[in-house]
Amino acid sequence: MSTQLEHLIDFDGVPIETIHAIFETTEVMAQVLERPVKRVPALQGFTVATLFFEDSTRTRLSFERAARAQSADVMTFARGGSSASKGESLRDTVATLDALHVDAYVVRHPAAGVPRQMAQWTKARIVNAGDGRRAPPTQALLDAYTYRQATGRAFEDTRLVIIGDVAHSRVARSNASLWHALGAEVVLCGPPTLVPPALAALPGVRIETQLDVAMEGAHAVMALRIQRERLTSARLASLAAYTAQYQVNEERLAGAAEDVVVMHPGPLNRDVEIDGALADGPRSLITKQVANGVPVRMAVLYHLLVGKGSR
Amino acid sequence: MSPKATLLDAQELDRALTRIAHEIVEGNKGAENLALVGVHTRGVPIAERLATKIGSFESVTPPVGKLDITLYRDDLTEIALQPVVKKTEVAFDVAGMRLVLCDDVLYTGRTARAALDALIDMGRPAVIQYAVLVDRGHRELPIRADFVGKNVPTRQSEVVKVRLAEIDGADEVVLEELPTP
Fold this sequence. Notes:
The complex is a heterodimer.
Chain A: H1 16-32, E1 47-52, H2 57-68, E2 73-78, H3 90-98, E3 104-109, H4 114-121, E4 125-131, H5 137-151, E5 159-163, H6 170-181, E6 185-189, E7 205-208, H7 211-215, E8 220-223, H8 239-246, E9 261-263, H9 276-280, H10 286-291, H11 293-305
Parallel strand pairs in A: 1-2, 1-3, 3-4, 5-6, 5-8, 6-7, 8-9
Chain B: E1 2-8, H1 10-27, E2 34-39, H2 43-57, E3 64-67, E4 98-106, H3 110-120, E5 127-135, E6 147-151, E7 158-163, H4 165-168, E8 172-177
Parallel strand pairs in B: 2-3, 2-4, 4-5, 5-6
Antiparallel strand pairs in B: 1-8, 7-8
Helix pairs in contact in B: 1-2
């Protein structure tokens, strides 16, 4: 069967075999980045454009590196210096860029649904690099890939616990849906004000407000960033109260599996949602998550562009 | 697909590899500094067998690497089916080595071209030579093999099928006719 992606907007409709194939390709791409020549000609002749209507320098650079490491041409669309700031509609912007023969757009936009809408307007491939409150699916892919690479444990035997500001987190939802699709059990945990009960409606997801209960038997613990601006919104009494109840630290891992690993999508609030020593310690996959950013994005671009109908 | 002729049976295939193994050692004046690199999929067992044979009559067994050339193919912008990318496993440093690239069939030469680029991106080998079990002609690039098991004149409507015990359960090389569309 074909492992080609039409677009990567979220995980709806992406066959699980394709996800596994992306993981296999990621391993090869990681090899490429360890060689003296960190470039292969796979995407020679393809053009990838990054369209960021909202700043996210690290995500953008990571995609551009991933495209260039496969010899694709890269165009960067920056909101400030473009006609979008003169009131050009998104649809007209896409039409203009299409005329430049773009094969794939990497899109980040503050409004939810923009990447899906763009897919209706262009024949090029679309990669969602974050829309509205949704995380780029590549983040969840790299989290799951990092876990698989570091532990080798089957997802079917895995319990993932996501802790923190689930309500506002860009990454909690996409990780929950991906890990569930891969066969893992997913537990969401945090103060009731930050974990809306509606999330329990997500398939395969359990909600737990008591950290100790959530931790039981966990194989992977993902701490989410507490955004300090939330403190004013009355959803969080105080940082000290959150830390006392929900900070992920060695002591709190007592009920988890012996070989539990700790993850964080970054950027880190050291000693707030996660204990600094734990984040730097042997259980932590955080530096691996960062390192896997480029190879995962390389694999996604490969699976989008190579094959029938990509141009 | 209908088989038309057996080009090599198991015994002939083994003899061809034995001869190539000797030619490799002769051509390189020994097995020092020598390494074999098999192209996925059937080039890999060929490289492994050649290394074992060389090890049986020389004091050293050359190391074997596995090369996947997918990311170096020249048709990725027009191909219909997305090829599966496999892992390249070359555990030795290729710089300064005498490499023998191994594959089952030499046809257009495009795989060899891709393999050369992939190898050179890993370092700067002293020499790259090319060993194939079957050369079936119809080159599209200026490529030739240094060591050939059997030269077979073919038509482009024909397919050379190499079967190896490690992958296919038995050793043989057969000529088949492509079904007419």
